[in-house]
Task: structure prediction
Amino acid sequence: MPRVVFEKLATLQLLDVRVPTTDGRELLLVRRTEPSRDVALLLARLNLTLPPQPPPRITQPKATESNPM
Result:
């Protein structure tokens, strides 16, 4: 593929948004940017589709280990 195609596809970004909750858990939103019009056309031309946005997840707080001295 030409370099321009890779440069266009590189504009898509994936990020994790972590939001702490008041009860010590964490809300995790994995999100991707919506493609611009030209990137969307390129994806369609290549017969590629982006997966749907995953649902939010809530994680439990990590257990801390106590080290007796």
